[in-house]
Amino acid sequence: PILASAHENGCIYLWSIQGSLLKEILPFSKYPPVPLTVLRTDISTKMLLAGSKEGHIMRWNIVSFLEDPQNSKNQIKEELCWRAHSTEVVDLFHEEQKNVVVTASVDGSVRLWHALNGCYLGYFGQPRKFEFLDISRLILPCDVNNFPIIIKEESKHMEKKKKFEYPLVLDKDK
C-alpha cells in the first residue's frame, strides 16, 4: 500500500506505509503551482486525479509505479490537465463504468467530464440528458474558456486539443 498526500505547494507526495517518502510529483503546467484541494484514484488504482484551488483537474497514469515503487524506471506519467471550474474544486470521483469524472466546486456546481480526454459532458440540474457517447463535440461550461491539455510523454510539452490562430495583419487600405 502507498499513501498519497496533496499539499498547499502544489505537490503530491507518495509515501510508504512505514513513512518514507517514495516520490514527489509536481503537476506539469504552464502556470505556477497552486494548492491542491482534492486527491482521488479510480477503483482499480490505474489513474490518480487531483483538483486544485483554481479549478483545474489533473490526471496521472500510476500503474507502472505501483507495480514496483522502488524501481526508478517506473514513472508516474501526467496525461491530462483541464479547467473544470472557475473556483476551487472541493471533491471529485471517477465512475469507471461510464469513464466519467464528476467534479464539485465551492460555487455549488457539479459537472461531468470524460475521463480520458477531459471533454465536458454537462452539469447536474441541466434540462437535457447526459450524452455519454458523443465526446467529439468540444463544448465548455460558460465560466471556463480553456480546452483540455494533453501532455505528451515523449517531448514533455503540452498540446492543446484545438489550436486557434489569429495573426495580426496590417491592412493599409483600411
Automatic annotation (TrEMBL):
The keyword Repeat applies. Residues 35-114 form the IP5PC-F beta-propeller domain. Keywords: Repeat, WD repeat. Pfam families: Beta-prop_IP5PC_F (PF23754). WD repeats lie at residues 82-113. It comes from the Eukaryota. This is WDR64 protein. The lineage of its organism: Eukaryota, Metazoa, Chordata, Craniata, Vertebrata. The gene is Wdr64_1.
